[in-house]
Amino acid sequence: MQKTIWPWVLIFMAMPLRLLAGSNDIPALYDSLDALIARQPAIVAAKEARLQQLTSDYQHPDLTADERYERGMQLYDEYMAFRYDSAFKYVLRCVMEQEELGNRDRADESRLKLAHILSVSGLFDKAHKLLSEIDVNRLSRDNQLSYYSQKADYYNYQAEMANRTYYYGEYMDSAVASRAKMLGLAPRNGFTYITSKAVNMSESGQPEEAVKMCEELLPQVQEGTRGYAILTAILSSFCQQAGNKQAGERYLLLSAMSDLRAAIRENNSLRELAKLLMERGETERAFRYLRVCIADANFYGTRLRSQQVAQLMPTVVDSYLNSVQRSSASSGKLVKVLAVACILLLLLVAVLSVLLYRRKRA
Fold first, then answer.
1. Residue 33 burial by CB count (10 A; 0-12/13-18/19+): exposed, middle or buried?
2. In this structure, are residues 99 and 107 in contact, taking their beta carbons and an 8 Å threshold?
3. 33: pLDDT strictly greater than 80
4. How many CB atoms lie within 10 A of CB 51?
């Protein structure tokens, strides 16, 4: 049976994601996602080979200052969602080199990207200090847009960590205010404007209109990229808010698949899928996806993503044990479940240990 099914899995993997999105075949999407997870080591190895070549180019002694800056920023962009410490290293070099050259515009551009990677890492005090030192009135229009974009991201990440606390609303209000500034600066037909406008519409109780706006944008975004993963994750959220759970799950699958195809390790969609599957009682698959999330968080190397995965652990274990009890499983099955739970907990401890080591080394 497996030999019969496998070629169809490969066909689904090769199909454009938007064709799969229209197929209403969620089981096939799960098959394609599972096949991508199986191929993840090869995808990551190809990404690392490309990064090795880019690093070699960056280190060439005959580069001009302009060429070195362009390659340094390219390395930052490649590492930003792949490995935190490397992204931090290259963008910090760009900041220091451009400040030394007296190139204010490029130094500002680099500092704003540095603020982003600090926010992603959960180093909110450092990100806040960096953003507060930038005079927005002295920035170019493009850098002003980036400034408010980074502030919106900063407050959104803060809100993620403050969920279900008194301060959540405060952070979200600040994110909305930053997004309003972005809308005044972004080109009307661009990705930033449309997605920001759609988020505002969704938050004002018009999720169907938000879905329509983003679905019209979707064909313009390249599949297998971070932008595609972000857009489909946003669409998933809008569809869920509109009450269309099936479409929400489908877009979440497409987002997770795009993350895997692009070797993105700073991701959210697979974790959200694991949570959805747990709530539905599909604990075996939820466990498998959570293991990938733990490995990705460990590889990427930031406290924020590791804590988000850690928050799911009690729910996953409790859900799994409840499913065993409901099915009157044998004691042998229960031992197996507990063993798997212990392995996941040990993996989580390893993640946190690596993060503590990296913080001490920094």
1. buried
2. yes
3. yes
4. 17
